Amino acid sequence: MTAGLGTVLKEWGRIGCVGFGGPPAHIALLRKLCVDDRAWLTPREFEDAIAACNLLPGPASTQLAIFCAWRVRGRAGALVGGAAFIVPGLIVILALAALFLEGSPPLAVTAAGAGAGAAVAAVAVQAGWSLMPAGWRGAPERSSRRRWSLYLLLGAVAAATTGPWLVLLLIACGVAEVIAQRVPAGLKKARALPLAVAGAGGGGVLLSVAWVATKVGALSYGGGFVIIPLMQADAVDHYRWMTAAQFLNAVALGQVTPGPVVHTVAVVGYAAAGLAGGLLAAVVAFGPSFALILLGAHRFDRLRADRRVRAFLDGAGPAAIGAILGSAVPLVLALEHPWQYFVLAGAAVLALVLRRGPVLTLLAAALAGIVIVALT
User: Fold this and answer.
1) What are all long-range contacts of 300-306, with beta carbons under 8 Å and residues at least 24 apart?
2) Where is the protein situated, by its record's location annotation (predicted)?
3) Count of CB atoms within 10 A of residue 145's CB?
4) Contact 263/257 with Cβ under 8 angstroms?
5) Which residue, 61, 70, 72, 5, is CA-closest to 37?
6) What are 267-306's pLDDT values in tens digits?
7) Helices and strands, number each (H, E), in the chain
8) C-alpha–C-alpha distance, residues 31 and 21, integer Å
9) Could you tell me the pLDDT band of residue 197, with boundaries at 50, 70 and 90?
10) Are 304 and 52 in contact (CB under 8 A)?
11) 0.70 cut: is pTM over it?
12) Among 245, 232, 261, which Cα is nearest to 111's?
């Protein structure tokens, strides 16, 4: 069953406007639209699409949105639906970036940013923790739990300490698992994309922005938080486009705005080169997602059946989860005010004990920041 491009623009644009809460919310909204309401896909087809997108590098929920639009209206639908899903959140986050990154923002804005930024580490731990049960249950089927735990630990340590070299660790864990499972030689398909972006380039601010965005778009296995240490190392430590506090604000904005969490890279681009940098970062970061669907969606069934790809992800997957957990360390180290640690503790209770969503946790932390600054 197909639909007109106008319908795709409307429905995917609606999800892009109301999709607060990250991948779980996006998946639920896409399922309701494509399976329950319109019957464009069967439940099995939708579940297979989720599994296939999780095998690909890049933001999985964005790729799922593009894939569903492709199934409904072909390549034109994929382009229109993907853009409609991404653009609303991009507009919001660039507008907020202009407010948070201006030379002297209002005190309330600064306080809200500091409060929300303090909670980001707790949200990162929540994101990683939520991915662990499914990975742990699947480990005995293809990979031993001992190796799974080792990859998880290595990912956490790498994210906490190595910053820009994290990608090499993810690739190494994937290759190690292929060897451990004794998959026949020929890993080229599984590692072609990661190795294609493992080099570095330079020359000009916009070229540097494009390079950072390329890594973000191609290497976010498991969720947007996996590339937080990499972005922080580039944006704060290497290029010095932003302060550590501003970077925390950027991560918080990526969580509280609708659409994919990878929108965070647009704030980094904005800090580096203004609106042009923000738009360039977004286009480059989401480029791989469109390319993978437009060029390879018809081969998704073959991809899921490829033992080499699955073995590679059996190693890279838990390492990516560990990296999400380990990303909390540099985020905590970026806090500047003593009171932020109390906000972080409260956010940890909300996110990990009471299991509230990231949007509520960050908004509560932002409000706490405003109150604390006003009283001091």
Assistant:
1) 300/48, 300/49, 300/52, 300/67, 301/48, 301/52, 303/52, 303/55, 303/56, 304/48, 304/51, 304/52, 304/55, 306/189, 306/190
2) Cell membrane
3) 12
4) yes
5) 72
6) 999 999 999 999 999 999 999 899 989 988 887 767 667 7
7) 17, 0
8) 15
9) very low
10) yes
11) yes
12) 245
